[in-house]
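Input:
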Amino acid sequence: MMRNEQALFDINNLEVSFRVFRGTLPVLDRANISVFQGEKVGLVGETGCGKSITMKATIGILPMPPAEIPHGEIRLHGKDILSLRGEQLRNARGQISLIPQDPGASLNPVFKIGTQIIDAIRYSSSGKGLNKRQMRSRAIEILKEVGLPDPERNLSCYPIQLSGGMKQRVLIAMALVTDPVLLIADEPTTALDVTIEDQILSLMRDAVDRRNLSILIITHNLGLVREFTDRLYIMYAGQVVEEASTKELFRNPLHPYSHGLIDSVPKLTGEGIAEGIPGMVPDYLDLPPGCRFAPRCAHAMEICSNTPMMSQQGEGRRVACFLHGQEIREERGQHA
Amino acid sequence: MLRVSCMDRKSGRKEANMLDLADVKKYFPVRGGPLRRKIADVKAIDGVTLHVAQKEIVGLVGESGSGKSTLGYTVMGIHKPTSGELLFRGQDLTKMRSANARAVSKQIQIVFQDPGSSLNPKRTIKQTLELPLKVHGLGNRRERLSRLRELMRTVELPEPYLYRSPSALSGGQRQRIAVARALASEPEFLVLDEPTSALDVSVQAKVTRLLMALSRELDLTYLFITHDLSLMRNVASKVAIMYLGRLCEMASASEFFAQPLHPYTKMLLSSIPVVSDEEERLKPPRVVSEGEIPSPVNRPTGCSFRSRCREAMKICETIDPPLVEVGDGHEVACHLYTQSDS
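Output:
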């Protein structure tokens, strides 16, 4: 894939910390993530690794305080969203849509589906100047696009009358109806069964391809990203530790954490259950010095008490591990 | 109704099995109208016949709404079946009196899906683990404490954790406590209701390994309820697929994965996201997933899967296919495989 074009969406050295009673938690440490036009990118990691914080910072729903962003940029079309205010910020945000995790909890139970979709249309830039009837027909159109059967009737249904898969279709419709350029999907299928997951994934794939959108999909499901994405970022304890094309990553994971993750997934080949990764995710208040994965790593060396830089490993592939590069990252100070 | 054919094979095996379910049904009433009369039934389990032999690990797989958890709870005694026989070591659990029932409940325990909500947040781990010992009157105070220490070693947690509250433990550690609680009364049979699906992958692997090691060391028999077929490939000795309250396919794990027969099984298997090319080759040819599981209140006539089945025929609309044996212990409920008889 060509890399000399400018990224559509670019998270640049983003840091997020939470100031709590016990101290300051550095939950996101200089994360670099880019998504190019028309690309499907995955952000993979386990609970508490900073995936959702990245998503929240991006769409501007991070609770500040306690959270703060001491450093970094989030750029859409080259413009830093974090520095925008007012109308400009609203326009930029309007171009990013979120497909949330839990379809059951993400729709308001006391409003009809139609009301909620029409609200999304009314406040989007694409809905300006439309009258009620036009908005309604636009809502029906979008529900048809996401494959919801009998859209006219479903508009006057309450969320509780729909199944989980249907609700997720409605949420995808609401994400698409504002004509975004970037979709962020936060664990979009975790609450669904495999057969429904399959349907939702092909729906998202079709929508992204047809509209030439870009999508950042946040998940812990490795099988899902393998089938869905072009490129991947692996996160561990608030840091991006590996970046690679999906194919490369599954063929040859470089970071010991990526390797451990792929290894932990039960396989259809029936080779037994893997050992998993020893130890636990560190406490953000008590992070190990240097590489955050070192205490759980079978390959840990002396040098691992320093923080490894993301080092280039061929085309579009970078990894932060001393097994694959000797560059030590100096701590922040001159950056601040 | 049409559940006759699977009944007559049961008799021969009755003795050797740990658990026998014969045509078990569990209906929940739906009430409505001003007088709260019963207007319909949710047919959560609609005639399940299942045999679990000693030391077997039976994987019960299905989508949400298929009735798999209800079946697990019924075996546990949380629900009383509407009809059918439920035999544990030959004793009918549904007809048991309370003294006996407690002795049996000591033998059957359960591990729930979400350790975050299945452990009482106001109790210390010690209090949680001690309760089953007290209920079953096992040991005095000192004996109980030494049993608790032993349990902590069994689930590979440090002893001082006994005095913590669940909120001070990680998800994986909490699930280990839930396993320890289930093991406290030294049961022979565990119902595992999605014990790893709330956990991260690397933790999932560790908890699964622990469960497998325990089944070997303590000669446990598991009814492993899950929606994860890849996991079942690695742990189950027998796999049963449930759809809308009935079993639609059942076989030994090796046979099941080598030759899945039911169209629903094929759909499930072909929808699993996998992580390597070797696995990709093991999946059946792609079956595009269509539709959703129908409501258990208004079961479709005939085969309940026909609304989503690519191979549905005329006969599927009227006659519900019974579960029949088509090969060495491989049972399937589909007209594609029984056409010659009908």
